[in-house]
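Entry 0007
Protein: Competence protein CoiA-like N-terminal domain-containing protein
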Amino acid sequence: MANEILYSIGETPLKDLINAKDADKNSSYFCPDCKQPFILRKGLKKRPHFAHKSISPNCTPESALHYGFKTLLHNKIQHHLDQNLPLNIHWKCAICNDIHKGNLLKKATQVRLEHDLGICCPDIALLDKDGKVIAVIEVIVTHKPSESTIEYYTKNKITPVLYILNSDQDVDRLNHDDLKPDRVDLCTTHPKCPKCNHYKQKKQLIIVDASCWKCHSPMKVVAVQSNMHMDLNSLSTDEIQIANDNGCFLKKQYSNIEKASYVANTCKKCNRFIGEHYLFSDYISDPDLDRQLIDIGFSCPDCDTNPKLQKSSPEYTSASSFANSILKRMGM
Ligand SMILES: [Zn+2]
Ligand SMILES: [Zn+2]
Ligand SMILES: [Zn+2]
Ligand SMILES: [Zn+2]
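Output (structure tokens):
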């Protein structure tokens, strides 16, 4: 089984950690987690690993892997700090989907194992010169940090770095010069919302090549794409200008049905406009229409929601799911 977790890390009598493939039969080793004696197994069927000499009921390969990985990672970081070396880190950003790179030790001057923060105790904490925790590394084998822990990190401007381990062979990930964790909640391109401290999301215009429902003249139709529904009324004058510079015609219109005026896509030829109700269903969600996306800035999913539309309203759900399904189909 590829994903079977074996005891692959042992401790020497001098408390050094060693990988089973580098261990030799004539030395003695102990379990890094429960400290009981290990025997080395180098057979043909399985990769080299250790086993307890006698049953150790409270020890699991998962807990030993967790302990071994975080200790080796801590030692690697400590070594870089001692030598004054940068430690490069790469991650695929969950916020913007780009690959970001940086030096994990740009501001860090100390590293601590199991640093007690009161509400939580991260596996590894990085502290700056003033003793403030600036980043934490969580090694996840079975237990994920809770939502409230992640929220605590966000509020206190602590960057969480997560390693998610599925096999004892994940220890080999520490052999590379650079760190490649599975998740880092840090985006170097998106701004943070000053109100809630979460990252803002990209706000884009989706423009489709359609035709007027009345006179059938070609017509560019625009909607706002963000991870929440924002209608055209949320656009600033400058943003409306961007749409209109790209061939759209947004104009304030009065709806007799809704007894209100709103910004709507208007036909340049016959001056008829597309009601809010039909914008997603008849235009934006039509997969056959050619489209372009234009970045117009950032918005916060929690603080910049259009107050007219509640998140639970059917219009909200249909509009955002339409937009999301379209983007999925386009592979975005
Ligand atoms: Zn053990
Ligand atoms: Zn990013
Ligand atoms: Zn916010
Ligand atoms: Zn028309």
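Curator remark: The longest strand covers residues 201-211. Residues 61-82 form the longest helix (22 residues).
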